[in-house]
Amino acid sequence: QVQFVESGGTLVQPGGSLRLSCAASGSTFRFYAMGWYRRAPGKQRELVASIGPITSRRTNYADSVKGRFTISRDNAKNTVYLQMNSLKPEDTAVYYCNKEVATDYDYWGQGTQVTVSS
Q1: Which tens digit of pLDDT belongs to each residue from 45-103?
Q2: Alpha carbons 3 and 25: distance in angstroms, whole number
């Protein structure tokens, strides 16, 4: 089973930028379409960005982050990234990566906390 370790979250001011990283274990990473999810306090987990498998350039974004977030992957490093620009307080959440189609029964890492506040 592929496992994930997220990093890069921190406290940032509104309008700032962050890049999150997700390191995946295993040799099958490149075959999975991957996603970045977030869970804000008191809210359900939501998929905010996804990217196709292998060398696919397909990306999808939630309306709330479109134009501000960019997802990318480096299959040689088993890593997926989320570049976040023009951050807003409503982006505050714990961010997780996982397969694009993941359920509560899949393995979930610890996530990385992003706090947007002045």
Answers
A1: 999 999 999 888 899 999 999 999 999 999 999 999 999 999 999 999 999 999 999 88
A2: 5
Tell me which amino acid residue 33 is: A
Specify the 3-state DSSP secondary structure of 68.
Answer: coil
Strands 93-99, 112-116: pairing kind: antiparallel
Secondary structure letter of residue 63 according to DSSP: T
Q: Are 114 and 36 in contact (CB under 8 A)?
A: no
> What's at 103, amino acid-wise?
T
Q: 109: which 2 tokens?
A: 């890492």
In our burial notation (b when 16+ CB lie closer than 10 A, e otherwise), range 103-115 reads eeeeebbebbebe
Backbone angle region of 15, left / alpha / beta, with phi > 0 → left and psi within -120 to 50 → alpha: left
Token pair 């982006």: residue = 91
